[in-house]
Design goal:
Elements: E1 28-34, H1 38-49, E2 54-57, E3 73-74, H2 82-114, E4 121-122, E5 126-130, H3 133-147, E6 153-156, H4 158-165, E7 172-176, E8 180-182, H5 184-197, E9 201-203, E10 208-214, E11 217-222, E12 227-235, E13 253-262, H6 267-272, E14 279-282, E15 288-292, E16 298-303, H7 316-325, E17 334-344, E18 351-356, E19 359-363, H8 369-386, H9 405-425
Parallel strand pairs: 1-2, 1-12, 2-9, 5-14, 12-19
Antiparallel strand pairs: 3-8, 4-8, 5-7, 6-7, 10-11, 11-12, 13-16, 13-17, 14-15, 15-16, 18-19
Helix pairs in contact: 1-5, 1-8, 2-8
The structure holds flavin-adenine dinucleotide.
Residues 34-40, 57-60, 64-67, 69-73, 75, 207-208, 236-240, 242, 244, 257, 259, 301, 339-342, 365, 367-371, 373 line the site of flavin-adenine dinucleotide.
């Protein structure tokens, strides 16, 4: 789905493959995966490598979801730091979860290397930039916990962060060298290419309308009339989750993330702004995140309005944020504006559901899904192959719709407005 006022920077090469491959009608396959984003494709690739017959179907083209639209920041970890995870999940599961969280960026970069994916990337770290003393303290706490585990991380002084970002207004920050940046559409397309090469059938433009069970076999029906039969169905629809599984859409709050990209920077500006190519997120309540693209543009994103955008003015808050950080960019053209949907859960963790045997759903990327969903897909594939729940980093949980879900969007919009005001006071 390409909306009129959404013009992403990431483009598929004209020669990109279209995927129209379905198993013969009537054949029962091991796994049908609904959703061909990073989650669905990583699960499919790894499941095929484990010997399973896998069909992926997507309502649109591969990369039309968040996976092909995102900021391309590959950041390990979860919202929570190691101590919190240990406290809440106990020593055994907590430790496994910390190790999983630590490994998610490695999983992406190892996949790029081992599978020979044609994906532009820079692996030089992610900076969490602090603009208040409170944020600096949080960074020091995070640094202590990850350093104790041998992670390649360190605190940055105000001078260091100014040199590394070229941006104004930070008191210091935290550098996580495990992270990096990629072209997310190239990554998603390349995942599809290698999954297909590994035997996965992938069919685009197959909008799944119904999933039912008959005599222990799952039936997946698409709007096109295609009918698929499978032992297992995996819903990897994330923020696009509709009514396929009762209650599932009500377990997440879909939010819009908006992005802008400047014209390519001049060589002088490129030498001052992120000269080493790190990704950055700042510490504001309504944070902005930014990086340089392979063709030398500055790409900056942040939360956007919940209604569909009407025109360039709906990205104006990001242009203001850009100039606050980089006044020298006052004359630069903003050449691209686009947005996509992220799925948040109330506990800020991804959820794995299996409401009936052979029917799995994975939702809740929390806006950090490149590493998370790639690594989780690998684990889901191991679970599908072995049936061993110990393969899963997160416990399987019941589908629990958020109370008053229909009113949640109003609450989110009000909270965003309030946080923006608090952020403005802290400038
Ligand atoms: C603007 C933006 C910026 C982001 N920036 C970052 C970032 O810098 N770093 C990071 O790690 N993460 C980022 N994210 C989050 C990241 O993109 C997601 O976590 C990740 O892509 C989720 O992958 P997914 O496969 O679960 O979902 P998606 O990529 O959304 O895939 C879901 C797929 O399901 C399909 N689908 C839905 N319903 C049906 C149906 N009924 N039948 C068939 N198909 C169906 C959709 O067409 C879609 O292709 C960002 C997200 C956005 C939107």
């Amino acid at each position: 789905m390409r909306l009129r006022f959404s013009d992403p920077i990431w483009q598929k090469p004209r020669t990109a493959t279209a995927f129209q491959s379905l198993f013969p009608a009537g054949r029962r396959v091991d796994v049908v995966i609904v959703g061909g984003g990073i989650m669905g494709l990583s699960t499919a690739l790894h499941a095929a490598r484990l010997g399973l017959a896998v069909q992926v179907v997507d309502a649109g083209e591969i990369g039309n979801g968040a996976s092909g639209l995102n900021g391309g920041q590959v950041i390990p970890g979860l919202k929570y730091d190691p101590d919190w995870l240990l406290e809440h999940f106990g020593p055994e599961r907590g430790e496994a979860l910390v190790n999983f969280a630590a490994s998610t960026a490695d999983t992406v970069f190892e996949l790029i290397r081992d599978e020979g994916l044609a994906v532009p990337f820079v692996r030089n770290g992610w900076i969490q930039a602090a603009h208040t003393e409170t944020a600096l303290k949080a960074a020091a706490n995070r640094d202590r916990q990850w350093r104790a585990r041998g992670a390649d991380v360190r605190l940055l002084s105000a001078t260091e962060i100014a040199t590394m970002t070229g941006a104004q207004g930070y008191l210091g920050g935290w550098l996580d060298r495990r992270a990096g940046v990629i072209d997310p559409l190239a990554y998603t397309s390349e995942l599809a290419r290698v999954a297909a090469a590994a035997g996965v059938k992938i069919a685009e433009r197959q909008n799944v309308m119904q999933i039912s069970k008959d005599a222990g076999i799952w039936h997946v029906s698409a709007e096109s009339g295609a009918e698929l039969k499978a032992k297992v169905v995996v819903l990897a629809t994330n923020a696009c989750t509709g009514g396929l599984l009762p209650g599932l859409a009500e377990t997440i709050v879909p939010l819009h993330s908006f992005q802008i990209a400047t014209a390519p920077l001049s060589s002088n500006l490129a030498a001052e702004i992120l000269p080493e190519g790190q990704a950055v997120s700042d510490s504001r309540r309504i944070l902005v995140y930014y990086r340089k693209s392979a063709d030398g543009r500055l790409v900056l994103g942040g939360r956007g309005r919940m209604a569909l955008p009407n025109g360039p003015a709906d990205w104006a808050h990001l242009e203001r944020a850009l100039l606050r950080l980089y006044p020298a960019l006052s004359d630069i053209a903003i050449e691209k504006r686009w947005f996509g949907r992220v799925a948040m859960t109330p506990d800020h963790l991804p959820h794995i559901h299996e409401p009936e045997k052979g029917l799995l759903a994975v939702v809740g990327c929390q806006g950090r899904g490149i590493g998370l969903m790639t690594a989780l897909g690998e684990r889901i594939a191991s679970y599908l192959s072995s049936g061993d729940t110990r393969q899963l980093p997160f416990p399987i949980s019941p589908i629990r719709p958020i109370p008053f879900h229909a009113f949640r969007q109003v609450g989110v919009a009000a909270t965003i407005a309030w946080y923006r005001m608090l952020d403005a006071f802290e400038r």
